[in-house]
Amino acid sequence: MNRVDRLFGIVTLLQSRKYVSAERISEKFEISVRTVYRDIKAIGEAGIPVSFEPNRGYFIIPGYFTPPVSFTLEEANTLLLSQSLIGGFGDRSVQATFESAITKIRSVLKQVDKEKVAILDESIKLQLPERLTFEFEYLAQIQHAITEQTQIKITYQSLKDERLERIIEPIGLVFYAFSWHLIGYCQLRKDYRDFKVERIEKLYKTSCPFEVTQHIPLSAYKLPVNY
């Protein structure tokens, strides 16, 4: 991350919280506390009124920014609940992007609503079985391929422990049987197939467009009845 992006990120973080400590900024952006001090100074010199309260942290003086988008407290609370669900059922790629989105949403809330959301944030917990963890980082790439309608290449471990190479035209993601599944058109088999995402060992994005001009809708794909 270059410095300009980092400074913008720090400003967004400051907008999303009532107070932010130098240590929290240091941890989030993986920089030293001394660098935080320099960045805060640069933000102030750019005309953004950042102040500091001992034992609490930095904050942007209320009223400086006019939020470009407004959210009701109920909408923000619903998104906060979604954050817990994404944290439990998403992989690392989706969790990272959703956390970034939530931070931006927090930044445009009224100060009083930020405080209420912070209380709710500490009052929501999603308890899942230990086996239900998603260590892969493919969901965001698959989503991108679906929206851009581009092929992906995967190395896949079959149920017979065979390592397979496949070129797929993804049409959707389905969560069933406690796992994420990629549904896509297999170039080799010339048919639609179900690939369990956790069995994907490698995934490569390509710039090749779909060869099939009209895929079936995801709802038309027959999922297993008993699983």
Task: Indicate the topology.
Elements: H1 3-16, H2 22-29, H3 33-45, E1 50-53, E2 57-60, H4 73-89, H5 92-107, H6 111-121, H7 139-148, E3 150-157, E4 163-176, E5 179-186, E6 191-196, E7 200-209
Helix pairs in contact: 1-5, 2-3, 4-5, 4-6
Protein architecture, described:
With 227 residues, this protein is an alpha+beta fold. It folds into 3 domains: 3-60, Winged helix-like DNA-binding domain superfamily/Winged helix DNA-binding domain (Arc Repressor Mutant, subunit A, Orthogonal Bundle), CATH 1.10.10.10; 73-121; 139-220, SH3 type barrels, CATH 2.30.30. It is 39% helix and 24% strand. Strand 1 and strand 2 (57-60) form a beta hairpin. Helix 1 (3-16) crosses helix 5 (92-107). The relative contact order is 0.10. InterPro entries: CBASS_pafABC_assoc_protein, HTH_11, WH-like_DNA-bd_sf, WH_DNA-bd_sf, WYL_dom. Pfam families: HTH_11, WYL. Residues 137-203 form the WYL domain. Residues 6-58 form the Helix-turn-helix type domain.
Helix tally equals 7
SS elements, strand count:
7
SSE succession: HHHEEHHHHEEEEE
- The strand line-up of the biggest sheet is 6-5-4-3-7
Helix content: 25-40%
Q: So what's the CATH class of the largest domain? A: Mainly Beta
Largest sheet: 5 strands, antiparallel
The pLDDT mean sits at: 88
CATH architecture of the largest domain: Roll
The shape, in one word, is elongated
Uncertain regions spanning at least 5 consecutive residues: none
Nutshell version of this structure?
The chain is α+β, with helices and mostly antiparallel strands and 227 residues long.
